[in-house]
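lol forgot to send this yesterday, sorry. struct tokens for the thing we talked abt
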């Protein structure tokens, strides 16, 4: 048949191919690295939540709260960068942020792991089981950025990102009227909205955690002449009674005087009792008025009497 009969064979669309697009597909390593970045962000935010809950529940002292706040801010910052880096890699806009974040996390968490390992192996841990569990948790946090680094540094990932940045086109799409694959629409550049949507929730979470930690450490009852704050109820607790297993008649007199407000008796009790003895703790906390041991400084903190 010829064109005189009105046949327009060249206008029929070509059938869709049965094979996938030949180029432009995101490597599996890039997807896995981005997923690990999201996992790491979740682990860091979970760590912040655990620290906050533990600090609020235990009413930790002010010095420890300061450390907890620093850890909270650092963990939230790294979590935000993980989310941004993972999103950028999935979009093909770059891998630099994820690489930098991975290196920083590997260095910081690796240093923490070494410090914990040295402390456990050379020190005298009070709770060996708890220390071993802590090491395993830190090791898990360390493994995630290490594996992520290996994946992001793969040549296929680097080549794919470079190709996306060079061509700025999306994944190939099938054009039926041409009967071939053509470059897809260019991905939208990373917008401020994406950054804000990623970082604002993390920032709000960090703010809430920081405020909660600050409130938990605000129970300062006295500030000494050197400006050091001490936390506690400020109310003495009862010393061991004759019915208690820890009762010791040798120290009961000083313990009763310490309870009644004689700070010299508290300091004497701390100095005269064996290390680790309940009476030593009673004297060092000024009769239970403070949360932490003061090592014989009750007179300096409260004065001769309370």
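and heres what i got for the seq, position by position
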């Amino acid at each position: 048949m010829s064109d005189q009969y009105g046949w327009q064979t060249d206008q029929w669309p070509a059938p869709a191919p049965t094979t996938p697009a030949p180029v432009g597909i995101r490597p599996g390593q890039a997807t896995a690295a981005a997923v690990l970045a999201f996992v790491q962000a979740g682990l860091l935010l979970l760590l912040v939540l655990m620290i906050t809950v533990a600090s609020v529940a235990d009413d930790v002292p002010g010095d420890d709260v300061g450390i907890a706040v620093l850890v909270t801010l650092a963990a939230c910052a790294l979590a935000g960068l993980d989310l941004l880096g993972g999103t950028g890699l999935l979009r093909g806009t770059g891998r630099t942020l994820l690489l930098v974040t991975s290196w920083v996390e590997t260095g910081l968490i690796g240093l923490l792991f070494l410090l914990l390992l040295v402390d456990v192996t050379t020190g005298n841990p009070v709770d060996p089981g708890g220390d071993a569990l802590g090491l395993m948790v830190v090791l898990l946090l360390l493994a995630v950025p290490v594996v992520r680094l290996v994946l992001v540094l793969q040549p296929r990932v680097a080549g794919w990102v470079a190709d996306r940045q060079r061509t700025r086109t999306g994944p190939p799409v099938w054009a039926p009227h041409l009967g071939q694959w053509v470059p897809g629409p260019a991905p939208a550049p990373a917008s401020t909205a994406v950054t804000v949507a990623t970082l604002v929730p993390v920032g709000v979470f960090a703010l809430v955690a920081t405020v909660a930690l600050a409130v938990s450490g605000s129970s300062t009852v006295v500030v000494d002449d050197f400006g050091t704050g001490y936390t506690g109820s400020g109310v003495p607790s009862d010393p061991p009674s004759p019915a208690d297993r820890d009762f010791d008649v040798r120290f009961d007199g000083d313990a009763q005087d310490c309870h009644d407000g004689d700070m010299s008796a508290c300091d004497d009790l701390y100095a005269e009792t064996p290390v680790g003895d309940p009476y030593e703790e009673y004297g060092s906390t000024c009769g239970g008025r403070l949360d932490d041991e003061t090592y014989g400084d009750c007179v300096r903190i409260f004065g001769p009497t309370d």
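Residues 28-58 form the longest helix (31 residues). anyway ping me if u want another try
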